[in-house]
Amino acid sequence: MSDLLERLRGRGWRVTAQRRVVAEVLDGDHIHLTADEVLERATARLPEISRATVYNTLGELVTLGEVVEVTTDGRAKRYDPNAHRPHQHLVCSGCGIIRDVHPAGDPLADLPDAERFGFDVSAAEVTYRGLCPDCARG
Amino acid sequence: MSDLLERLRGRGWRVTAQRRVVAEVLDGDHIHLTADEVLERATARLPEISRATVYNTLGELVTLGEVVEVTTDGRAKRYDPNAHRPHQHLVCSGCGIIRDVHPAGDPLADLPDAERFGFDVSAAEVTYRGLCPDCARG
DNA sequence: TATTGACTTGGACTTGGTCCATCGTAGGAT
DNA sequence: ATCCTACGATGGACCAAGTCCAAGTCAATA
User: Fold this and answer.
1) Any idea which positions bind Zn(2+) (chains A, B) (predicted)?
2) Across the interface, which of A77, A102, A130 has its CB nearest the CB of B120?
């Protein structure tokens, strides 16, 4: 995400302290924070930032394709900054930790024509579930 | 779902008018109702039924493995009575309609060991996305 | 360095869901 | 057939996640 702000500036984004902080908080690998977690970490760096701004900024990053929304549990959405390399998710059924994974082959190819109901199918999201090493031991 | 109530009675379930109505409402193919939609349809048949009871009953049916929860949009959970035949979901990005689909092969097999991070992986959920015939025309 | 339209704020509001004290009733016992 | 009682239903308060909006602020351009 390092050159993200420059990319966004080039697209006409006004760079504010709030947006910078949200982008910084999302930087890293295997990052899948909820909006509230982003707010919490952003507040540590910029105490005046508001909840609405965090939601606004996350929504904009999603619209611009810089971040993808992930829903693994029907509760809060999570925000994944690894938007430029296609991948799927592996979720621990015990503690909920999420890893980015790269399955072999194209999951789309597994859906026969007869199973497409006339849809123009364009994407496949896969969520693998299981126990992480820590939870399997417990 | 026709013999569902008998199966549940066998498991010690007390069969009430409310539970019967919820089970009836869920009967059918490609049914993926939200809790509120279940409540709405149940109310049409049994006006006194309460929201809490619908949630309780849906939760019990999920625990018993008779219904599966589906989250395709990060909003309301949906309840799928087709729990005994493994399948995946195809969701229209336009109108949100959901079809049950059966991909070829086992999606689990596509995840290489090197991508498992030591997890004991036990399941894979796939959500295919695209436009349904109606939305593609529009 | 002045201007201004885009951005931020906080609080009210909405939606989806859970909890709980109280009341009602299915189904076994008599 | 009726009685009992533990299990189930009720509705209203509560909670969590997210959206909306009117008013105030400020980044970037001139």
Assistant:
1) 92, 95, 132, 135
2) A130
